[in-house]
């Protein structure tokens, strides 16, 4: 299953459980608008220009349970993994932790940096990034460059910063 790569900017894959806010986040990054999204079947892709010299090709891959076996098809040429979690939904953290562990176990992602985005920080009951990183067991990934940041796709908070950090992680790795 080959995917056509149209640009030479580094490929960044956005993954996470369904309803984590991945498509909202991508639409917000690319257009500055909040879009009505429906569950992603397959993927969305776009090129994000961070500044004059830096752009990233960002793939947002469907997160429903039935879609997750397909995640591995998107990992070729992946330079960074962005894993989005809904920080307002602690009940799904164990499932997110398992999904993350599984995808990071793939050989293709061996030295690939990870950015975890704790989305929906605009909601009053959202977990702190410390809680999210504990729930996802991020400290166990000591052999990998990783960062965690809070953001709100709906409000557009923290997105630009997060992807600037992703770009820096790619350069470091």
UniProtKB/TrEMBL annotation:
For this UniProt record, give its keywords in alphabetical order, as a comma-separated list.
GTP-binding, Lipoprotein, Magnesium, Metal-binding, Myristate, Nucleotide-binding
Enumerate the residues binding GTP: 16-23, 63, 119-122
Which Gene Ontology MF annotations are present? Answer: GTP binding; GTPase activity; metal ion binding
Q: Where are the transmembrane segments?
A: none
* This protein's record includes keyword GTP-binding: yes
The record's annotation in Gene3D superfamilies points to: P-loop containing nucleotide triphosphate hydrolases
Highest taxon listed in the record's lineage: Eukaryota
The record lists Mg(2+) as bound by 23, 40
InterPro entries given for it?
A: P-loop_NTPase, Small_GTP-bd, Small_GTPase_ARF, Small_GTPase_ARF/SAR
What task does this protein carry out? May play a role in apoptosis. May act as a tumor suppressor.
Q: Which family does it belong to?
A: Belongs to the small GTPase superfamily. Arf family.
Identify this protein by name: ADP-ribosylation factor-like protein 11
Q: What is the lineage of its organism?
A: Eukaryota, Metazoa, Chordata, Craniata, Vertebrata
Q: Source gene?
A: arl11
């Amino acid at each position: 299953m080959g995917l056509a790569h149209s640009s030479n900017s580094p490929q960044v894959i956005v993954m996470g459980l369904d309803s984590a806010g991945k498509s909202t986040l991508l639409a917000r990054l690319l257009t500055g608008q909040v879009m009505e999204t429906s569950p992603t079947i397959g993927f969305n892709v776009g090129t994000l220009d961070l500044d004059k010299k830096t752009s990233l090709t960002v793939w947002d891959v469907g997160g429903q349970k039935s879609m997750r076996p397909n995640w591995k098809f998107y990992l070729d040429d992946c330079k960074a993994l962005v894993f989005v979690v809904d920080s307002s939904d602690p009940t799904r953290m164990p499932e997110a932790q398992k999904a993350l562990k599984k995808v990071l176990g793939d050989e293709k992602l061996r030295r690939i940096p990870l950015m975890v985005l704790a989305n929906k920080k605009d909601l009053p009951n959202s977990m702190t990034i410390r809680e999210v990183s504990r729930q996802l067991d991020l400290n166990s990934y000591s052999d990998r460059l990783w960062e965690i940041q809070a953001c709100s796709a709906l409000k557009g908070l923290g997105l630009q910063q997060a992807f600037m950090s992703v770009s820096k992680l790619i350069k470091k790795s």
